[in-house]
Amino acid sequence: MYFRGKAFISDALEGLGRIALLARDTFASLMTLKVAWKDLVYQIYFVGIKSQSVVLITGAFTGMVLGAQTYFQFHKVKMDTATLAVVSVSMCSELGPVLTGLMVAGRVGAAIAAELGTMRVTEQIDALRTLATHPVDYLVVPRLLALHIALPILTAESIAIGIYASHLVGTHLLGIDPVYSWHNMVAYTDGSDVVVGMVKALAFGGIVGLVGCYKGMNCGEGAEGVGRATTEAVVYSSISILILNFFLTLSLGQLLEML
Amino acid sequence: MILVENLKKSFGSHQVLDDVNFEIQAGESVVIIGRSGGGKSVLLKHLIGLLKPDSGSVKVSGENIVPMNERELLRIRHRFGMLFQGAALFDSMTVAENVGFAFRRDPSISEKEIAQRVAEVLDMVDLPGVENKKPSELSGGMRKRVGLARAIIYRPEIVLYDEPTTGLDPIVSDSIDQLILRVRDRLNVTTVVVTHDMRSTRRVGQRILMLHDQKIYATGTPEEIFNSRDPIVKRFVEGVSDPKELYF
Prior knowledge:
The structure holds two protein chains of two kinds. Chain A is mainly alpha-helical. Chain A contains nine helices and no strands. Chain A is 88% helix and 0% strand. Chain A is elongated, with a radius of gyration of 21 Å. Chain B has helices spanning 40-47, 70-77, 95-99, 101-104, 111-124, 140-152, 170-187, 198-204, 222-226, 231-238, and strands at 2-11, 14-24, 29-34, 55-60, 63-64, 80-83, 158-162, 190-194, 207-212, 215-220. In chain B, helix 5 (111-124) packs across helix 6 (140-152) and helix 6 (140-152) runs parallel beside helix 7 (170-187). The longest helix of chain B is centred in the last third of the chain and has 18 residues, at 170-187. Chain B is globular. The N and C termini of chain B lie far apart (40 Å).
């Protein structure tokens, strides 16, 4: 039991170290500004356009459920018109970026790990290297950049659709006054809430890209290796998103208070 | 041209190469033979820096590539072309995109010029007109030819072949051997072939290295190896199993 625990911690630290090295290589590659634009555009299409339905449905239904639950509680103390303000702040700073990050980790992180994993086991990554192409330049940089660009946009969409869906449910189904509700939302939602959400989306994009690429490029042999890499990419990036979210909430909250 | 000295490599507790030493001269055609799982492909991958040894050195034109990082190795790899066992074609790309891959990121070469070079090299491997096909539409032999076309398009000085005839029927195997010889003679390249196909060894090898028990066990011309009286070499080239050894 002791040795298993020791091996687990050692493997986890080694994995973190390797991801840090991958991040360093990716940053160094970005600094050369030799980005394959065609690949970047395709990856933005794959991450951004292809994730629309998943992100919009998640955002809309999360907003609706949050609106309804908040209304049920606030109605007891006659604060119906504060419902949309709570939904807005929650969606902007927490639920929008976290749920979008988790959905993209499930869809895009898994796809990246499976694609790069298959390339690894069929020696396509070795073939890239023999063709004097650095795998980080060709495979990691376009995917990571695409996630950094697309995830904040997807998060913004998710926030907007969540608030709008909550507004529709509140005013049409639950009978909340639309004018006061909207007024309260604008009054209590600060620009800093949106900034926090966007910073988180940017950070989560990095996690999904780095973990997906790392797991794919270092996967085990055969179909089993690819399967395991895909699962681990989703699990590790989801857990990392949830943990990082807590620390970002604390640190960004304090930072914005100081400003 | 390539000098391997005291090369050792193990994966975990499994020692694959132990004190391997040999030299390959420019323009030479060398075949490395040995049992399946004996470390031939591992050895080949060390020559181009795809694997790092535990100790020892690999010198290419006097330059030790072992301490080089991935970016420094890119410069060395411009001098190599490699054909993988399963061809390792990029399955999301067409044949033309695969073959012209090395030039895609070079802005100094126009699309027209790339198309011309691709057509030229596909013609050399007897596969004209397949530019728009996907790798999944090709047979095993055709995939190997496309892989070879991709490896030689930028005129490398050294071409490495990892089991080029494995999984192919004897007629296609013969055509691949002819192709290896054609590429060697037309482009004047140094050729290193890893195989356990004895017919192929006899056809393409000017010198043979036999890897056995993690070491270079025997070396010589095809005549010397095929006429060797050493029991291990003899048994291998004649394909005779050892009754004392369990194979399954």
